[in-house]
Design a protein that fits this description.
mainly alpha
Length: 84
């Protein structure tokens, strides 16, 4: 794998993350939605704070940002597609 292909993979990861951490976050989103839906059917006098994905999967880390060089490369690719 050359550096160009590696940069492409990093750019793709920034757009559509994959792997264990993002799968945990997605499971947390689904679990939080289900828990919030069930919780909304329970009558209470006070307003309850909705669940967040981190309530179920606390070891989440956001995806890393792209470097300026990687952003410039992606923008160059987009311009080439528009022209050709």
């Amino acid at each position: 794998m050359d550096s160009q292909e590696f940069t492409d993979w990093q750019a793709f990861f920034a757009i559509e993350p994959y792997g264990y951490p993002i799968d945990e976050w997605r499971c947390g989103m689904m679990t939080a939605n289900i828990a919030n839906a069930i919780r909304s059917t329970i009558p209470t006098k006070k307003k309850l704070k909705p669940f967040k994905p981190s309530d179920f999967y606390p070891n989440q880390k956001p995806a890393e940002e792209l470097t300026p060089r990687q952003r410039a490369y992606i923008e160059g690719k987009k311009r080439k597609r528009k022209r050709g």
